[in-house]
Amino acid sequence: MSEQLPKAKVAMHWLVAIGVFFLFVSSWWMLSLPLPSEDFTYRQLPFQLHKNVGITIMVMVVAMIAISIVKKRKKLQIQKSRIERLASLDHLLTYFLIIACCISGYLSSSFSGWETTLWWLVELPAWSEENDDLNIFFSDIHLWTCWALLSVVSVHIGAALYHAFRNDDVIDKMFRL
Amino acid sequence: MIFGVLLLANHSNELLKQVVIAPGSVAELGVPADCRADELEEEGLSLLECELMVSNVQITLVSSPEWFRPLMFLLSVSGVLFAALSISVGFSFVNNKNVNVNWAKSCFIALIVIDAVIFIVATNTGPLLRAQYLWSTLLWFFVHLFLLFAAVSISSKEIEDGA
């Protein structure tokens, strides 16, 4: 039987999964809405929600990394097989890409001149005045890190299905609350 | 579980659509699209694409009968709830091996009914909305049908083993 994962980490894993897929599907739709102006405000709610969910996901991922670090310190270092090292790399890459997506999205929004109010409660700081070049730069990073994230998540789901069909206890760990 | 996560994202997005695209909004009033050159460059859009984005909203508004929005709102809220329930059913299967399979069956039946009603609702709108909804709804319908019959076969095997 493999080691039990902390319940908080399992719960956050699934909340992050729901959030990430919601962000993908809603972003494809919201970018087809009319460009914003004084008259056209269709993008206001979806964009604000997109930023709120994104920032919340980033906080959860940081918490998951912190939990992993604390757990790893307590654990004896054992030799990992090649496949286990690849799985660790996939996890690291997923965490890195989620954080990169969120930070680049926030910076792009910040340089576009749009304010970010976290869950309509906390006003987050804008990093500078409106700057089109930096907005486009961070927007491109946001776009490509998100595509990369989708690829890595596909590998992650593929690996999960591999363990599910083998019916081993690796997959069970992610369901135990 | 993965299907539950994807379905939850799908229904949440549908709910967002119904909230954002409301009748009587500016696209319906014939206000021309505001397509500034800097915005077009930023978004990588042509002028025509920018103008058609307003038409895209108009398509939804013009093709939606009066009953469509409240009904889709209700169906997507139900979809969100039952998708979340299907995830919790997945969890309970692993956490408690003696979980009542009837819970899973009821959940999948509810999701099938939601898919079927969305399909019927979309069928009764115009061709533009049918093109948006029918195929994806049909795919979800079959996914839920497979899952229901997986649950049915587990439960009948349990009965046979117990007999």
In a few lines, what is going on in this structure?
Chain A has 5 helices and 2 strands, in the order αααββαα.
Topology, pairings included?
The complex is a heterodimer of chains A (about 180) and B (about 160).
Chain A: H1 7-30, H2 44-74, H3 82-112, E1 116-118, E2 122-124, H4 132-166, H5 169-173
Antiparallel strand pairs in A: 1-2
Chain B: H1 2-20, H2 37-43, H3 47-63, H4 68-95, H5 101-123, H6 127-162
Helix pairs in contact in B: 1-4, 4-5, 5-6
Oligomer: heterodimer
Give the CATH topology of chain A: Fumarate Reductase Cytochrome B subunit
User: Termini of chain B, distance in Å?
Assistant: 31 Å
How do the strands of the widest beta sheet of chain A line up side by side?
1-2
Counting structural domains of chain A, the number is: 1
Beta-strand level of the residues of chain A, as a percent range? Answer: under 5%
Query: Helical proportion of chain B?
Result: over 70%
Q: What would you call the structural class of chain A?
A: mainly alpha
* Order of helical and strand elements of chain B: HHHHHH
Keyword list:
heterodimer, A: 177 residues, mainly alpha, Fumarate Reductase Cytochrome B subunit, 5 helices, elongated, B: 163 residues, 0% strand
Task: Write up this protein.
The complex is a heterodimer of chains A (177) and B (163). Chain A is mainly α. Chain A has one domain: Fumarate Reductase Cytochrome B subunit (Up-down Bundle). Chain A has 5 helices and 2 strands, in the order H-H-H-E-E-H-H. Chain A has a two-stranded antiparallel ribbon with strand order 1-2. In chain A, helix 1 (7-30) runs antiparallel to helix 2, helix 2 (44-74) packs antiparallel against helix 3 and helix 3 (82-112) runs antiparallel to helix 4 (132-166). The longest helix of chain A is centred in the C-terminal third of the chain and has 35 residues, at 132-166. With 163 residues, chain B is mainly α. Chain B has one domain (2-23, 64-162). Helix content of chain B is 80%, strand content 0%. Chain B has 6 helices and no strands. In chain B, helix 1 runs antiparallel to helix 4, helix 4 packs antiparallel against helix 5 (101-123) and helix 5 runs antiparallel to helix 6 (127-162). The longest helix of chain B has 36 residues, at 127-162. The two termini of chain B are 31 Å apart. Classes of the chains: A mainly alpha (177), B mainly alpha (163). The A-B interface holds A 14, 17-18, 21-22, 24-26, 29, 31-42, 45-46, 49, 112, 132, 135-136, 139, 157, 160, 172, 175-177 and B 1-2, 5-6, 8-10, 12-13, 16-17, 19-21, 25-27, 31, 33-36, 38-39, 42-43, 45, 50, 53-54, 56-57, 87, 90-91, 93-95.
